[in-house]
Write a structure and sequence with these properties.
The protein is α/β, with parallel strands linked by helices. The chain has ten helices and eight strands.
């Protein structure tokens, strides 16, 4: 029945080109289709350094140093535990990981226990964030990370790009193909912890000018995509 629906549909809608390719490979035939990316509000301009400092004060985050943002459900598919472990064990000093999301099959309390007391100053685990706090969090961050083995779109990554924030995206993230050859961040070749650790170190080592240039590219790409 499902195949008949697909074959006879006037159009099948997908959220990314990669999602369409994967679907057509899975069903074994070509469908009449269109890619309609999820709508994202584009910021008129990238937040200024002062905007970032104000947002960090509002959230009780350090005003100096780099902040890497994980924003999404705490679910095993998104590998939040692996994210905590890799950051805790390999991230250089001067970088903080801030995580925000709803509990799924992984809870915020479990993640806090995984962080441990020794790393609590470098990893902040929050609950769900909405409204003005959500905007403040995207403003406060220097970059966004998603380490899911599979993401058909990854709305949080698109939102971060709309704020002009560089992204670190896992190999299974379909937005990687959407940005083409534009340098919008770091795209590890494998899903192994070592590849994530390398990307975090490269993010930490990038100077402010380089980080700003990548952020501008993100903002421009977001305008083009969404």
């Amino acid at each position: 029945i499902g195949r008949a629906y697909l074959k006879q549909a006037a159009l099948v809608m997908f959220s990314s080109d990669a999602e369409r390719r994967k679907a057509q490979q899975a069903i074994g035939f070509t469908v009449r289709s269109v890619v309609v990316r999820w709508p994202v509000d584009i910021q008129p301009q990238r937040p200024t350094p002062e905007d970032q400092r104000v947002a960090r004060r509002q959230l009780g985050l350090p005003e100096d140093g780099r902040i890497l943002l994980y924003f999404g459900r705490y679910h095993s598919m998104k590998r939040p535990v692996e994210m905590v472990r890799t950051f805790r064990d390999t991230a250089p000093s001067g970088v903080m990981l801030v995580m925000a999301g709803l509990d799924g099959d992984v809870s915020a309390d479990l993640l806090k226990a995984e962080v441990g007391e020794a790393a609590s100053s470098r990893i902040r685990v929050l609950g769900p964030v909405f409204g003005e706090r959500r905007t403040a969090l995207l403003t406060a961050a220097d970059a966004f990370v998603s380490w899911s083995p599979r993401e058909n779109f990854c709305y949080a990554a698109a939102e971060s790009m709309a704020f002009g924030r560089p992204v670190i995206l896992s190999p299974g993230n379909d937005l990687r193909g959407a940005v083409g050859g534009v340098r919008c961040g770091w795209f590890p070749e494998t899903g192994e912890p070592a590849s994530l650790a390398d990307a975090i170190r490269e993010f930490a080592a990038a100077n402010d000018t380089e980080l700003a240039e990548i952020g501008v590219a993100d903002h421009v790409a977001a305008k083009t995509l969404y």
